[in-house]
Amino acid sequence: MSCKEHKNHEHEHGKDCGHIQIEHNGHIDFVHDGHLHRKHGDHYDECKIEVSQSNPAECKPLSCNIDHEKEGHEKIPHGDHHDYLYEGRLHCPHGDHCDDHGPVKVVA
Fold this sequence. Notes:
It is built from one helix and eleven strands. The chain is mainly β. Helix content is 4%, strand content 47%. The protein has two domains: 5-47, no CATH class; 61-107, no CATH class. It is globular. The longest helix has 4 residues, at 68-71. The protein has one helix spanning 68-71; strands at residues 5-6, 21-24, 27-32, 35-40, 43-47, 61-62, 75-78, 81-86, 89-94, 97-103, 105-107.
């Protein structure tokens, strides 16, 4: 995995920092202001959920009448866009519906 450092990150992430944690590629990422942060030595790396068979980026309509932005659902970087985390799944607003971009494992 390449290292893409998140510059000027002043917050120290940890199990009680208040940010949602997701399991991703064998490590834990912290969801923070539309970013996924991973501790790497003395800095944090930017991560994103890769487009894959389990997290596709195509139109897969699901019945969802939620305004994710208005409801304050967390944004998650996925491929070349952002999805919203809702009940352990990535929802991508698309016209009059949301697309299901698959599951993520939220760490309790």
